[in-house]
Specification:
Helix content is 39%, strand content 17%. The chain has 7 helices and 7 strands. The structure holds NADP nicotinamide-adenine-dinucleotide phosphate (NAP).
Length: 237
C-alpha cells in the first residue's frame, strides 16, 4: 500500500504516537489539531513526510474544508480526537457535554463521510472509544455515553464503508498520557483491580491500532485494551 495515513487528533497523546509510527515507516501522514499552528508543530516533531491540517470535529460543518488538503489515496484513517469533559448530573455543563457529544457522535462519521471516496479499497479505519463505556467514574457522564456510541456506531457504518474495514479501540487508563500526570492514586487504584497488575501504555495502544489497521480480516472489532480490567467481574472484591 502506498497511500497516506490520516490521524485526526494527533497534536498529542495516542494520535501523535500513531502518526509517528507511520511517519517512521516512510509513509505520508496527515496530522490534525483544531489549530493549524499546533498541527504544524506536531508535524515538525513527528518528522518525515508529515503534514499538519486544522479540523474541529465539534464544528462538523467545517470538517470538509479542514480535510480538503488531503490528497488520496488514503490507506488508513485513525480518529482518536477527544475533548476532555468532566460532567456530573448535579453540576451539568451543557456546553462541554454538547461539544464532546458532537465531536464523537457527529464528527467521527462526518470525517469518514468526507474521506471515504479518497480511501483505498483495502484501506481501514480505527475509531476511539474507551473503558468508561463499561466502567463509569465521577465525571464520566458524557464520556460513558459517547464511548458507548462509538461501539455501536460501527454497526451502522460497517456495510456503508465496505470494502474499507472499520474497527474501534477502547483503552483503559493509559498511564503515560498527559491527562493522568499527577493522578498516581487513581492509576494505582485501577491497577489493583487489573489482572495483569501492569499499566496500559501508549505503545500498547499504538500496537493494537496497527493490528486493526493492517490485519485484512479485522473488521467490526471493538477491541478492549485494558489489561483485563473490564473483564474482571468478581462478585466480591
Ligand atoms: N488517555 C487515556 O487514558 C484514554 C483512556 C480511554 C480512552 N481514551 C481515548 O483515546 C483517544 C486518545 O486519547 P489521548 O489521551 O491520546 O487524547 P489527547 O492527548 O487529549 O489528544 C486529543 C487530540 O484530540 C484533539 N482535539 C481536541 N478537541 C478536538 C476537536 N474538537 N476536534 C478535533 N480534534 C480535537 C486534540 O488536538 P488540539 O487540542 O490540538 O485541537 C488532540 O490532538 C480519545 O478518543 C480518548 O477518548 C484515552
Amino acid at each position: 500500500m502506498s497511500g497516506s495515513v490520516v490521524v485526526i487528533g494527533a497534536s498529542s497523546g495516542i494520535g501523535e504516537a500513531i502518526a509517528k509510527h507511520y511517519a517512521d515507516q516512510g509513509r505520508t501522514v496527515y496530522v490534525s489539531s483544531r489549530e493549524q499552528e499546533r498541527a504544524d508543530e506536531a508535524a515538525a516533531r513527528i518528522g518525515g513526510d508529515t503534514h499538519g491540517i486544522a479540523v474541529d470535529l465539534a464544528e462538523p460543518a467545517g470538517i470538509a474544508a479542514g480535510l480538503a488538503p488531503i490528497e488520496g489515496p488514503v490507506d488508513y484513517l485513525v480518529i482518536p480526537a477527544v475533548l476532555r469533559d468532566s460532567n456530573n448530573l448535579r453540576e451539568y455543563d451543557i456546553e462541554g457535554a454538547t461539544k464532546l457529544a458532537v465531536l464523537k457522535v457527529v464528527g467521527y462519521p462526518e470525517t469518514i463521510h468526507q474521506l471515504i471516496d479518497r480511501m483505498s479499497d483495502d484501506g481501514a479505519i480505527v475509531l476511539f472509544g474507551g473503558l468508561a463505556k463499561e466502567k463509569p467514574y465521577p465525571g464520566s457522564t458524557n464520556v460513558t455515553s459517547v464511548n458507548g456510541a462509538v461501539e455501536k456506531m460501527m454497526n451502522g457504518l460497517i456495510l456503508q464503508v465496505a470494502p474499507v474495514r472499520i474497527n474501534a479501540i477502547h483503552p483503559g487508563i493509559v498511564a503515560d498520557s498527559w491527562f493522568w500526570e499527577g493522578k498516581q492514586p487513581v492509576i494505582d487504584a485501577v491497577l489493583a483491580k487489573t489482572p495483569t497488575g501492569k499499566p496500559v501504555l501508549t505503545e500498547h495502544i499504538v500496537d493494537a491500532t496497527v493490528f486493526l489497521l493492517e490485519n485484512p480480516s479485522a473488521n467490526g472489532v471493538n477491541l478492549q485494551i485494558d489489561g483485563g480490567h473490564q473483564a474482571r467481574n468478581l462478585i466480591f472484591d
